[in-house]
Amino acid sequence: MSFSQHLWQANAPLYQDTVQLPFNQELAAGTLSRERFCHYVIQDAHYLLAYGRALAVTAAKADGAEGMVQFARAAQEAVLVERSLHDGFMSEFGIAPAQFTATPLTPACHHYTSFLLATAWAEPYPVTLAALLPCFWIYAEVGREIHASSAAGNPYQSWVDTYAGEEFHAAVRAVCATVDRLAAKAADETRAAMHTAYTHAARLEWMFWDSAYRLGDWPV
């Protein structure tokens, strides 16, 4: 079993809890409320900008030219997806640019993005990649499961199709391969830190979707 597979297996119950969240179940059924989906899209756009920055920092830390290109491209793609949210879902669901700009990050989104950026700046390359991996991998697998059970005429089908597509899964496999390569030559202490970073990010993935369903906001 590869190192990335060990990461997945160690967090398999958390993944199952994520798939079973009301947000994802109702998204697949097409019954998710418009308010909850709009809340999610706004926060996802905020998140992707921070994720792109974390990927750009990671590219600068890469141990070779191939890694630099891989994660610089991933950073660019995160920003392009964020822009497509504005042109696509935000426009379709009547979210004005001013509304997006005026909406602050929720506690869950703020926690997640702060963790990724702090890890990208402070931790070594292998640990940073382990923290970034859940966003790639969990999104892809959740998207695939939702796609398999998506209701006919689902108003959110275009979102489902994006994350269930082969292109996205190919990117996940490439990141896993890089993580496996780095883990193979890392010290035990570094591999333990990679496990910790992956698990923390996977928990934050759960929190992000849970917060969207609850329309999470700052209590004060």
From TrEMBL:
Keyword check for Nucleotide-binding: no
Reaction equations catalysed: thiamine + H2O = 5-(2-hydroxyethyl)-4-methylthiazole + 4-amino-5-hydroxymethyl-2-methylpyrimidine + H(+); 4-amino-5-aminomethyl-2-methylpyrimidine + H2O = 4-amino-5-hydroxymethyl-2-methylpyrimidine + NH4(+)
UniProt xrefs under Pfam families: TENA_THI-4
One term under GO cellular component: cytosol
Keyword Heme appears in the UniProt entry: no
Pathway this chain belongs to: Cofactor biosynthesis; thiamine diphosphate biosynthesis
Gene Ontology biological process: thiamine biosynthetic process; thiamine diphosphate biosynthetic process
Start and end residues of each Thiaminase-2/PQQC domain: 10-214
Protein name per UniProt: Aminopyrimidine aminohydrolase
Native organism: Ventosimonas gracilis
